């Protein structure tokens, strides 16, 4: 080493420089968060003066991630700071929620979570946090409708036929979903309840592979969010029966609602909301709520969501109060459904 | 001619100056992030995805993301070859012989061969995409859980070839890898397995932690343990360009790997993962000098790198034609589509032809740029090996930890690097190789998921594996591969007995 040290020093410097540059390229992209650059924001003492991190508890590119990134941009504009979207996957979103619960309650760590926030207490008995006690709600974001779909050569063509067919062939049909606790799993449970059947469920690791097998005709039917199904439905790659909201969705105007088709009990949306840890000052929460409401009125966000068959919630639903009451109601409702399904 | 029209449309889009620029930016950024130890394409895209959100033109955004993707892949191969630090599973294969070449002073050749192989594969795969994307995507959908299970079985058995030493030890490593792959929450029941009550392990062990540990950190420990190997690399950094004989040796491996990779990449259920392993296994099997594999065989770099790049490109096929993401990187691309206001689905190809064809053409442009960008850089990379070890080793470890931590901001991933580093060192001392372990780790969950899924769909009837024709053929091939793999090792054992008598 010492022999040729004279010649090596510049090379080492160059290498380190290059590695440094590489690192520099990666940090603003979304690696770090925290106290990296120091605020180039307003300079005042008011919140926010540094980057805000929104934790998404699911994979990048998934529906929750997409919704988050849609609103992150306009929120970042109205808050005047960078918003970093951080994906922390694992255990049905409870790893991320667990981390967010113990983050500093200063508003710089925000959790985006969906319906799974209300099912986790039932699905994970040893949950290290309490969705109601450990979090302060910021507001609802969107309620994504779900669609009941099947492989395109599946025999039944209407909801009535589907119910009759599934009841008759209970032992042979297969119901795909995106993994235990996923929205499609929950909707599938409700659908089975509504039909009065118990069919073979086939779990997939995420909604993409499940859709691939449905398009490929490997499984029979599934219930999934419009964010995933709209493109496939419009192209006729899968057969659609109904949408699980009280009203029809704009992007699929011909698709009847479950209520229209005689399944009024089957009403389910994948609602998304923002959370901060309990103890976050009220004015900080209010600032975040305001930014969220502004983002939900952004034309671009409305358009992007419409393309996916969903819409931002009304401004009066994007509030901590509405969010908390929905969360409370859903925790109870899902406990019933899930416990019943596990009982047999 | 539809094809020519489409390609003309594609190139007229891809060659617009701003798109070339975005492509170049993507390739350069991807390479820069990809060379960070432990950062592979998925992590690179996830990090750099937000850059493209502000773009007005979705085509430019997707061209840049695609550039980042194969840039990162190439960058990842660079660290795999130079430092034995693979950032994703395919680079782990490149590391086997690539790093051996680097250790014997042929780092430049290995890097150049990787670049050339990738370029050829990329060119061919672009043509495949252009000519046959829709029918291929349809064919790929006939692969169900039973077929994937059979494919993974075949892959695992063929991968015994990954080991240059004892078959028994290779098998043991594969099994250990499969067991490690089981850590985490069971997909089917939600029950946590081998998590020791740690919620951080519910999502399973992170590939990067395992790979960086058993390859990179173990390599550093081994170097520290045995100073002789250290001096050897420092003193012999010569040949940068592959010789004419080298080029002749890699011609067929590159072409075979391109075909193999293109075919596997189309499968949306994880075929791309197998591409580089399959290519390595094939090349070793048909080589006249299989004993060179694992000790710096140039075919062992050219094949997997080409297969990987071909698969990377054809894995766009399910996404572009059907809107179905084949793997996490493609799922990120779906996110990018949506952010850009395009609903991914089968209609994209007809509704947005200039986007789809522009993207396809840009892949070729990107491959050209990648070669132009990287061939001159090889000299610089190679010189990195001359950095004194007292500087290089700590730098690698620090960057590996940063890279691993940035994946999920999960300190357990960093602790896992340390754990697997020590485990890797112990294994190497015992004469076990890390590559089969990593393969088991990657394929184990695929094996289990598809086995159970196939049985769920068949309502418990195991005959699906032999009554479905594709699955039956693949399993038959697996049996043949097993026999072929086991026979010579039995023969060799006899030879060893004789050799020890001397």
What secondary-structure arrangement, pairings included, does this model have?
The complex is a heterodimer of chains A (344) and B (502).
Chain A: H1 5-31, E1 52-56, H2 63-79, E2 83-87, H3 94-101, E3 109-113, H4 116-123, E4 135-151, H5 159-168, E5 174-177, H6 183-195, E6 200-203, H7 207-215, E7 221-225, H8 226-234, E8 238-243, E9 269-277, H9 282-296, H10 299-307, H11 320-343
Parallel strand pairs in A: 1-2, 1-3, 5-6, 5-7
Antiparallel strand pairs in A: 3-9, 4-7, 4-8, 4-9
Chain B: H1 2-14, H2 17-34, H3 41-48, H4 58-83, H5 89-103, H6 107-141, H7 145-158, H8 167-182, E1 184-185, E2 192-193, H9 207-225, H10 227-235, H11 244-266, H12 271-286, H13 299-314, H14 316-322, H15 328-339, H16 348-351, H17 353-384, H18 389-408, H19 411-429, H20 434-457, H21 464-467, H22 469-501
Antiparallel strand pairs in B: 1-2
Helix pairs in contact in B: 1-17, 2-3, 2-4, 2-17, 3-4, 4-5, 4-6, 4-15, 4-17, 5-6, 5-12, 5-13, 5-20, 6-11, 6-13, 6-14, 6-17, 7-12, 7-20, 7-22, 8-20, 9-18, 9-19, 9-20, 11-12, 11-13, 12-13, 18-19
Description:
- The complex is a heterodimer of chains A (344) and B (502).
- With 344 residues, chain A is an alpha/beta fold.
- Chain A folds into 2 domains: 52-143 and 269-343, Bordetella uptake gene, domain 1 (D-Maltodextrin-Binding Protein, domain 2, 3-Layer(aba) Sandwich); 145-243, Periplasmic binding protein-like II (D-Maltodextrin-Binding Protein, domain 2, 3-Layer(aba) Sandwich).
- Chain A has helices at residues 5-31, 63-79, 94-101, 116-123, 159-168, 183-195, 207-215, 226-234, 282-296, 299-307, 320-343, and strands at residues 52-56, 83-87, 109-113, 135-151, 174-177, 200-203, 221-225, 238-243, 269-277.
- In chain A, strands 1, 2, 3, 4, 5, 6, 7, 8 and 9 form a 9-stranded mixed beta sheet that branches.
- In chain A, helix 2 links the parallel strand 1 and strand 2.
- Mean pLDDT of chain A is 81; it is low at 1-44.
- Chain B has one domain.
- Chain B has a two-stranded antiparallel ribbon.
- Chain B is globular, with a radius of gyration of 22 Å.
- Classes of the chains: A alpha/beta (344), B mainly alpha (502).
- At the A-B interface, helix 1, helix 2, strand 2, helix 3 and strand 6 of A face helix 2, helix 3, helix 15, helix 17 and helix 18 of B.
């Amino acid at each position: 080493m010492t022999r040729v040290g004279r010649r090596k020093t510049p090379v080492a410097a160059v290498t380190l420089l290059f590695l440094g540059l590489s690192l520099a390229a990666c940090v603003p992209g979304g690696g770090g968060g925290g106290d990296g650059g120091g605020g180039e924001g307003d300079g005042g003492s008011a919140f926010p003066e540094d980057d805000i991190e929104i934790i998404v508890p699911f994979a990048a590119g998934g529906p929750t991630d997409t919704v988050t990134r849609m609103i992150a941009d306009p929120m970042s504009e109205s808050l005047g700071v960078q918003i970093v979207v951080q994906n922390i996957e694992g255990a049905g979103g409870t790893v991320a929620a667990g981390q967010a619960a113990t983050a500093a309650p200063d508003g710089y760590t925000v959790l985006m979570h969906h319906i799974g926030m209300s099912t986790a207490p039932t699905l994970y008995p040893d949950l290290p946090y309490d969705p109601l006690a450990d979090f302060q709600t910021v507001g609802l974001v969107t309620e994504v409708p779900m669609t009941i779909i099947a492989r395109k050569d599946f025999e039944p063509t209407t909801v009535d036929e589907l119910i009759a067919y599934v009841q008759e062939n209970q032992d042979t049909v297969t119901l795909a979903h995106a993994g235990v606790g996923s929205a499609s799993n929950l909707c599938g449970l409700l659908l089975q309840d509504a039909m009065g059947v118990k069919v073979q469920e086939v779990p997939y690791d995420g909604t993409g592979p499940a859709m691939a097998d449905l398009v490929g005709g490997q499984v029979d039917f599934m219930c999934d969010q419009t964010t995933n199904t709209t493109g496939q439905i419009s192209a006729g790659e899968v057969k659609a029966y109904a949408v699980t909201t009280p009203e029809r969705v704009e992007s699929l105007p011909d698709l009847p609602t479950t209520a229209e088709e005689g399944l009024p009990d089957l009403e389910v949306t994948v609602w998304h909301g923002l959370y901060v840890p309990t103890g976050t000052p009220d004015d900080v929460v209010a600032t975040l709520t305001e930014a969220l409401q502004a983002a939900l009125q952004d034309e671009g966000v409305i358009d992007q969501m419409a393309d996916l068959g969903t819409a931002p919630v009304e401004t009066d639903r994007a509030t901590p109060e509405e969010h908390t009451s929905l969360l409370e109601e859903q925790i109870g409702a899902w406990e019933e459904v899930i416990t019943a399904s596990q009982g047999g | 001619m539809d094809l020519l029209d489409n390609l003309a449309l594609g190139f007229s889009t891809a060659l617009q100056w701003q798109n070339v620029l975005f492509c170049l930016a993507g390739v350069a950024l991807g390479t820069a992030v990809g060379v960070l130890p432990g950062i592979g394409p998925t992590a690179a895209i996830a990090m750099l995805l937000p850059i493209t959100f502000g773009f007005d033109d979705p085509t430019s955004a997707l061209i840049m993301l695609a550039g980042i993707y194969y840039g990162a892949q190439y960058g990842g191969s660079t660290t795999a070859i130079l430092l034995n630090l693979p950032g994703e599973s395919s680079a782990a294969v490149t590391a086997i012989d690539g790093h051996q070449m680097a250790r014997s002073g042929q780092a430049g050749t290995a890097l150049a061969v990787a670049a050339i192989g990738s370029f050829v594969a990329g060119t061919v795969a672009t043509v495949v995409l252009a000519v046959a994307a829709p029918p291929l995507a349809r064919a790929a959908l006939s692969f169900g859980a039973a077929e994937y299970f059979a494919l993974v079985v075949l892959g695992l058995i063929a991968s015994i070839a990954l080991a240059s030493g004892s078959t028994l030890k290779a098998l043991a490593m594969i099994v250990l890898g499969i067991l490690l792959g089981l850590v985490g929450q069971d997909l089917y029941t939600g029950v946590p397995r081998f998590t020791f009550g740690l919620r951080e392990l519910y999502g399973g062990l992170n590939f990067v932690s395992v790979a960086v540990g058993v390859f990179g950190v173990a390599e550093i420990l081994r170097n520290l343990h045995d100073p002789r190997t250290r001096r050897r690399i420092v003193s012999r950094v010569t040949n940068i360009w592959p010789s004419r004989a080298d080029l002749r040796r890699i011609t067929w491996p590159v072409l075979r790997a391109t075909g193999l990779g293109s075919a596997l990449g189309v499968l949306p259920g994880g075929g791309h993962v197998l591409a580089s392993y399959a290519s390595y296994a094939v090349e070793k099997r048909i080589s006249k000098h299989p004993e060179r594999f694992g000790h710096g065989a140039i075919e062992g770099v050219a094949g997997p790198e080409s297969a990987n790049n071909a698969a990377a490109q054809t894995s766009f096929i399910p996404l572009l034609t059907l809107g179905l993401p084949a793997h996490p990187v493609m799922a990120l691309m779906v996110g990018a589509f949506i952010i850009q206001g395009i609903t991914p689905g089968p209609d994209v190809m007809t509704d947005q032809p200039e986007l789809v064809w522009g993207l396809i053409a840009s892949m070729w442009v990107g491959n050209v740029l990648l070669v132009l960008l990287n061939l001159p850089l090889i000299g610089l990379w190679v010189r990195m090996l001359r950095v004194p070890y007292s500087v290089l080793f700590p730098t690698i470890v620090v960057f590996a930890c940063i890279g691993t931590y940035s994946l999920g901001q999960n300190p357990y991933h960093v602790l896992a690097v340390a754990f697997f580093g020590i485990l890797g060192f112990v294994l190497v001392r015992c004469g076990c190789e890390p590559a089969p372990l990593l393969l088991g780790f990657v394929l184990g969950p695929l094996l289990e998921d598809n086995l159970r899924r196939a049985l769920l769909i068949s309502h418990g009837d195991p005959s699906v594996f032999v009554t479905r024709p594709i699955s039956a053929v693949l399993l038959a091939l697996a049996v043949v591969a097993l026999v072929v793999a086991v026979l010579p090792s039995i023969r060799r054992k006899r030879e060893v007995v004789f050799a020890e008598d001397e």
